[in-house]
């Protein structure tokens, strides 16, 4: 049989990465969004999101993709995904208004035999409330990661599919699309699938909190966390791909949303969620690490020090600044100015006290201290010699050791990193 036509509705980060990856598997794609101006830009090859290799993938497989703002084009689809990004507020609560609105206009436009799949992350109980006799409805767990979305969309570890009745076989057209990715398919009831995503993120948070806590203890006892990590990765109970690199707390919005959801569900179910509150507190503590290091190493002796901050995104290879540690640091500096540089994020997104620069070395020029807040790959290419020559001072706060330690020392720089 010919490959089914797949629709993606909601062309934000989730929808675009998923659709373009699907097109690379040879499936015809209908990509719908109500924003006609966005559709024009997409037809011209202008993507509103930043992900490594996404532009190249779109160019290579453009022939398989129809970008449209016409609902009638959804009649071509055998399977249609609702894949709008779900925003969260400062308390980690999801705003599902956009998903409800998109479903309201999309579902009536579909053929009666079209399979409808909700890919956006929703609260437990959401999909069951949508279950109707009109058409098959499924919830598919998305596991894309900012900065690695293309890789995750092309090579998924597994597909978790929420069903009204997991004992019933998946529709042939839907299964054909999933099977093309060559990974296990795990059907389960709606509620289990919705909680599976949250459970995955809780395990990740637990690993992150262990690494952050123990790395900070290393810093105070003369140990080196990077020496300990290999012993953990070789333990089968922990594993090679564990989240055990120390960091600056939890950012990006998705993990925070799931922790907030668990607390709300736990309170409703009268379940002890004290450990989840502890993880949140640990994350808040870790976000203050750069400021504590800056005060101890520089500001106590030189309150008027000139500060340079490299990196504003919450992590590398993304434009997102949701709960970014760099913005937390800038906020802690109060009215104090700082020169900043990020390869993607503009300085005006960081507040009035951020002075933009066109390069990392320009931002560092004349600085008493340089703080490298985002582990952008290009920051690894910064010459320690040139950095030392550009700076007025000799201290770099480099949480992720973007500058090689031996190069920093040879250049006369004092480097402060996580876990050492």
What does this 3D model show about the protein?
Helix 7 links the parallel strand 7 and strand 8 (185-189). The chain is built from 16 helices and 14 strands. The protein has 420 residues and is α/β, with parallel strands linked by helices. The relative contact order is 0.09. Helix 1 (13-24) crosses helix 3. Helix content is 39%, strand content 13%. The protein is globular and about 70 Å long. The strands form two sheets. The chain has an eight-stranded mixed β-sheet, sandwiched between helices. Strands 11-10-9-12-13-14 form a six-stranded parallel β-sheet. The chain folds into three domains: 6-190, Rossmann fold, CATH 3.40.50; 198-286, N-(1-d-carboxylethyl)-l-norvaline Dehydrogenase, domain 2; 288-416, 3-Layer(aba) Sandwich (Rossmann fold), CATH 3.40.50.720. The protein has helices spanning 13-24, 36-43, 54-60, 97-106, 126-130, 149-154, 172-179, 190-221, 225-233, 254-269, 274-287, 289-299, 325-332, 360-364, 384-390, 405-410, and strands at residues 6-9, 29-32, 65-68, 79-82, 115-118, 137-140, 159-163, 185-189, 307-310, 338-341, 354-356, 369-372, 395-397, 414-416.
């Amino acid at each position: 049989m010919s490959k089914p036509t797949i629709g993606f509705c909601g062309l934000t980060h989730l929808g675009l990465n998923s659709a373009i990856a699907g097109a690379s598997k040879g499936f015809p794609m209908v990509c719908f969004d109500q924003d006609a101006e966005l559709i024009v830009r997409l037809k011209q090859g202008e993507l509103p999101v930043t992900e490594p290799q996404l532009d190249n993938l779109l160019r290579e497989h453009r022939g398989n993709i129809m970008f449209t703002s016409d609902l009638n084009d959804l009649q071509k689809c055998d399977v249609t995904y609702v894949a709008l990004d779900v925003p969260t507020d400062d308390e980690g609560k999801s705003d599902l208004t956009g998903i409800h609105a998109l479903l309201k206009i999309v579902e009536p436009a579909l053929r009666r035999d079209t399979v409808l799949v909700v890919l956006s992350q929703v609260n437990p109980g959401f999909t069951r409330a949508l279950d109707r006799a009109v058409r098959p409805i499924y919830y598919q767990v998305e596991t894309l990661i900012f900065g690695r979305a293309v890789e995750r969309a092309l090579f998924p570890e597994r597909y978790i599919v929420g069903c009204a009745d997991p004992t019933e076989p998946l529709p042939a057209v839907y299964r054909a699309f999933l099977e093309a990715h060559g990974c296990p398919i795990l059907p389960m009831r709606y509620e289990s699938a919705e909680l599976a995503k949250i459970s995955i993120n809780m395990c990740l948070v637990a690993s992150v909190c262990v690494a952050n806590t123990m790395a900070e203890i290393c810093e105070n006892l003369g140990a080196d966390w990077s020496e300990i990590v290999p012993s953990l990765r070789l333990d089968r109970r922990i594993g090679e791909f564990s989240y055990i690199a120390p960091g600056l707390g939890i950012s990006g919005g998705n993990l925070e949303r799931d922790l907030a959801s668990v607390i709300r569900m736990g309170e409703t179910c009268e379940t002890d969620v004290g450990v989840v509150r502890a993880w949140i507190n640990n994350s808040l503590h870790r976000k203050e690490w750069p400021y504590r290091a800056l005060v101890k190493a520089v500001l106590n002796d030189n309150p008027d020090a000139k500060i340079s901050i490299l990196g504003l995104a919450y992590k590398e290879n993304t434009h997102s600044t949701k709960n970014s540690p760099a913005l937390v640091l800038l906020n802690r500096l109060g009215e104090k100015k700082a020169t900043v540089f990020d390869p993607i994020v503009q300085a005006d997104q960081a507040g009035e006290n951020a002075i933009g620069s066109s390069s990392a070395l320009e931002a560092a020029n004349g600085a008493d201290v340089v703080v490298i807040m985002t582990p952008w790959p290009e920051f690894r290419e910064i010459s320690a010699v040139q950095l030392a020559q550009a700076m007025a001072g000799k201290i770099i706060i480099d949480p992720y050791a973007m500058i090689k330690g031996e190069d920093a020392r040879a250049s006369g720089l004092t480097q402060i990193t996580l876990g050492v």
